[in-house]
């Protein structure tokens, strides 16, 4: 008997097929520059007495609670918080049932000074040996000041493990920042890939350390219940020779720890994790990266560790974009591009996310690896082995938007808009991912740039033939798709 296909279902499948077809084209369709102009919501700092910065009640109550992945494969978290009156307890109690804590982990405490600022007691506690795809509840603090939260561990590492990431950068602590954060929390994202520039404390007199504390309380509403994968930006450097502060990244490194040793890195500023079907590599734009340096040596080794059979989605995070057609920070990432781009192409990196430029931009798959000083192609060229470069430095900070793009739009630029917002990346299976950039349209979340991405490894003809022979996968519509 023939199946009767409803007109709606047929139209939806046709539309999806057309979208996927468009995503396979490289520079066939010209780029788009959005003409949207914001009319409200200036980049104004949230007042310090606003509830967004509220200090939790109780003597020495833990505050600025946040978690990040604590190992290489997602079976551990690092839980961090700050106390002020005294160090207090370093313990984290946790379990699988609310208010029932069967296990206890013990952390350590640190603190620092910056000019005239003295930090609180900063706690970091590793909770490991967790089960995949499990909800855990945890408690920190003691007696009436204790606080309770929860988190969900990722699914088992595997090529078809679905997962939804949020991508946020250059957030700051303005009303636009609040809008971005609230919109992300409505998206269903399970973890944040953060591409640098956190509190913007260096924008205040004497690099006001209190602004690190307000920012920590500000993002706690999300970061206490799901991991934020950290990378550092230029506003985290905080080198102030005039104040006697000559240790770079001092506040950031004390407050935001990373599982760098799990990926054999020598620095918390560059490291890698695996989560669901993704292998995520974090690079430091403001640490040495030329040949023979520690970051260069580590990245060369880490790229060899990537197993696309287990984690097909290879994603790079950094702060300064390698491709950017905005007048702000134009070509600041060129030196890193010259060093690493050939590796990204050779290893078929899927996506490179960056911040720094306070606008949004997505590229086509392009590379400029044939250029050198005396010969070769002098412009970025279409390259099916290259990653897509996405700039998401539009979280909402007080410096405002970067509204001046170069005209005409370069051939490598697919979409660009000077607005605040955030992105989501939903890995559906080993072959496809759904991506959305969401504009903060004067306080309202508006999906503006939506793309279906093909995986670079499983999208190749060889691997697609093997996949067709051995597998049947569910595509994003819920219908069986043969590859």
Automatic annotation (TrEMBL):
Q: What class of enzyme is it?
A: hydrolase
Example of a GO MF term: metal ion binding
Q: Which residues form the Purple acid phosphatase C-terminal domain?
A: 386-444
Q: What is its EC number?
A: 3.1.3.2
Domain Calcineurin-like phosphoesterase positions = 164-360
**Which residue ranges does the record assign to the Purple acid phosphatase N-terminal domain?**
62-153
Instruction: Give TM regions.
Output: none
- What this protein is called in its record is Purple acid phosphatase
């Amino acid at each position: 008997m023939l199946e009767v296909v409803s007109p709606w279902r047929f139209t939806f499948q046709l539309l999806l097929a057309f979208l996927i077809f468009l995503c396979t084209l490289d520079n066939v369709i010209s780029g788009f520059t959005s003409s949207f102009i914001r009319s409200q919501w200036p980049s104004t700092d949230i007042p310090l007495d606003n509830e967004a910065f509220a200090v939790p009640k109780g003597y020495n109550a833990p505050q600025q609670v946040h978690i990040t992945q604590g190992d290489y494969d997602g079976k551990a978290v690092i839980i961090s918080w700050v106390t002020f009156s005294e160090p207090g307890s370093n313990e984290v109690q946790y379990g699988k049932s609310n208010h029932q804590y069967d296990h206890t982990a013990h952390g350590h405490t640190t603190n620092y000074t910056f000019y005239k600022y003295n930090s609180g007691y900063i706690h970091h506690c590793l909770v490991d040996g967790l089960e995949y795809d499990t909800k855990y509840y945890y408690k920190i603090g003691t007696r009436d000041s204790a606080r309770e939260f929860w988190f969900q561990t990722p699914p088992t590492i595997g090529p078809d493990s679905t997962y939804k990431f949020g991508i946020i950068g250059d957030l700051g602590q303005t009303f636009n920042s609040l809008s971005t954060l609230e919109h992300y929390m409505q998206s269903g994202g399970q973890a944040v890939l953060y591409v640098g520039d956190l509190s913007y404390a260096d924008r205040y007199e004497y690099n006001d350390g209190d602004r690190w504390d307000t920012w920590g309380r500000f993002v706690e509403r999300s970061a206490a219940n799901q991991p934020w994968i950290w990378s550092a930006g230029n506003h985290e450097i905080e080198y102030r020779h005039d104040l006697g502060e000559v240790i770079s990244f001092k506040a950031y490194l004390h407050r935001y720890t990373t599982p760098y040793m799990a990926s054999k890195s020598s620095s918390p500023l560059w490291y890698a994790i695996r989560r669901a079907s993704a292998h995520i590599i974090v690079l430091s734009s403001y640490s040495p990266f030329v040949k023979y340096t520690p970051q260069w040596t580590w990245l060369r080794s880490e790229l060899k560790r990537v197993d696309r059979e287990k984690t097909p989605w290879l994603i790079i995070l950094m702060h300064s974009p390698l491709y950017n057609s905005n007048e702000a920070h134009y070509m600041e990432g060129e030196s890193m591009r010259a060093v690493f781009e050939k590796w990204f192409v050779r290893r078929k990196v899927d996506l490179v996310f960056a911040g720094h430029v306070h606008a949004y931009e997505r590229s086509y798959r392009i590379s400029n690896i044939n250029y050198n000083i005396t010969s070769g192609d002098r412009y970025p060229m279409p390259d099916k082995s290259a990653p897509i470069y996405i700039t998401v430095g539009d979280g909402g900070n007080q410096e405002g938007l970067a509204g001046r793009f170069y005209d005409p739009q370069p051939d490598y630029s697919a979409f660009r808009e000077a607005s605040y917002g955030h992105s989501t990346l939903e890995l559906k299976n080993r072959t496809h991912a759904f991506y959305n950039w969401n504009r903060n349209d004067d306080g309202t979340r508006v999906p503006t740039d939506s793309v279906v991405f093909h995986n670079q490894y499983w999208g190749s003809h060889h691997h697609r033939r093997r996949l067709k022979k051995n597998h049947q996968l569910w595509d994003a519509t819920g219908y069986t798709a043969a590859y």
